[in-house]
User: Fold this.
Amino acid sequence: MAIYHFSGQVLSKYNRETGKPRSPLASAAYRSGDKLTDESNGLTFFYKREVEPVAHILAPDHAPSWVYERERLWNEVNTIEKNINSQFAREFNIALPVELSHEEQEELALEFCQEAFVEKGMVADIAIHRDDENNPHFHVMCTVRPFEENGSWGFKGRREYLKDKNGEFIKDKNGKRAFRKINSTDWGDKEVFNQWRKLWSDKANSFLEKAGIDERISHLSNEDRGLETIPQIHEGYVARKMESEGKKSDRVEYNRAVKKYNSKVAELNVYKKKKQHIQYQNKFVRKLSPTEKKELAKVAKQLKMFVNFESLNTRRQQLQKWEKKVTFNKFENDKERKLSTISDQKEAISQALEILERESDRFINTNYPDLDLTKMSQDVKITLTDRSIDLGRLLAADEIDELLNDRKIDKLNEQITNVIENRFTFVMAADKELSKMIGVKNLLEKRLGINSESPINKIKEAAFHNPSDYELLKKTIIALEKLDHSKQLITELYDLEINKHYSDIKRPLTLEQKEILLVGLEYFGDPIQLDKPLDKFRYTTIEQRRILEIFSSVSPYVVRNDMKKRFPDFKVDNPRFIVFFKDECLRNIDNLSEEDIKILQKIDPEQMAQSEFSKTDFVRSTNYEINRLLNNEFERHDHSSGLNPSGVITGTFNQMFEEAIRDRSFDSKRQFEEDLKSKSKKMRRGRSGPSL
Assistant:
């Protein structure tokens, strides 16, 4: 099961345990698995591991580029920390949940370090260790000295000299001025350390929930959580290796004793929980019949879990993932038995949900007589009943409306996820694909001489004489129905989201316009306004330049990989997100260098999109418009003095929206592209000014 372990220590050049000096390069080499050389003494450090660590370096945007080179990073630290007993790193040892996949563990570690350490200004050298599959964990070595905005090392703190009430300096026992140290950061504060501990449990639990896993961890002690169990201690690699070699380890022995004690406590708690549940059920206004209780108990025994709406819904999602994995894995052992088990459990879940729905019908009829049950879905009924019971009161009208809306959004998102992998890669070209498929369907029906109203004998005759065309027609109709169903689901979802976040918009919007508004909401974290120039920014100038540096790679794979490491929230595969980024950079053009702008022009949202569905007129035309404005800026400025400050672009979102709703012929787009190419050539020939 997932355990909570989060420990921290400060690494100094002087090792008090051994009484010997310690090299930052040795510490980094041990954790990362890299061979590193300490330039101060010429010593090389390498620690071979059976399983190679997964290592990453994350850094704040204003850090110099060399921090991503592990050997140079810690040599620079070694140089700046001159004293023999200087602190050179703050190190953390954190246990990863064994229930997560390797990819999920890695993503969790990077996301946590980015938020906890990097956003505070530290460089984080991360190494994931899996020498023991039962004990996955990661080490983080963080720099203790901040960087200035220009990329140079800052100060750890400053001295504040002490004075008496007369304003005279106080002297210490050696006759020197007494002082106290004022730290330049709060990285060493106990309160901040506890915040990191809590953040880790929150992040880990979020990933466990996302993966459909019931296990949870907590940064609180068992006593603080009101638990009678005793926490286990972190065993570590050395202790486990001793056990595997037949030697006795006190840490492992201690955990065995704790597990034995906790199992007894667990048995007692099961009894207590059952008793509490019975007492709680007796307080219900709603009631389960004896037969329903018996059926639910049978389901609980079959599924080996406590039955309620939340647990049933979670198990159903887990079964869907398991079924997909078993079905499409060619090498799956005992496939038929596993699929049979999945089918039986899905049937049991449906049976339990029907019972809860009947119970909810009785509750709602009694307590909410004005609500129309025929217009409410099963999950809405059960959720309304559960929410009312949990709060111990009936919900107000606005609370019911909010609950209904949220449940609809959750349900639609679940349905859409089951139908298509990525809604953003689907939305824009749905109508075009529908039109194309309808054309294919009409052509095949004409060749076969049949349609949807043809008598059955005529359809059979056509199928007999032209079997290949008939099979193709069947497949086209099925695909057409699926595509149309997907579009209806997404339209309904977008209507709910627009009403929730853009309730002031009364005019009708196309699906594409709704998509732009929702991507804008996702990009900036707040709704965007159509009647005002866009003046907000998601990224700082330094962050923009870092992102452009990543985009400079010719390989989309490298771009995606690097972006995931350094800017995990950047939606590389959503072309509309990239268009918003390009527009943001365009509005900040005076703070970007010529090289930055050249990279910006080369960023092609269509190329980054992984699906043909994403390659739409909106993305294409808007991207061309941004590139045209970039070219115009180059042509307008004085070539000998850099970009003209008076030429700052104040915003293009209104133009972007016009592009989204304006019809553009293919010929005009082709001419537009040719104009851009010719302007780019002029720019390259005429450019002679210095880079900013």
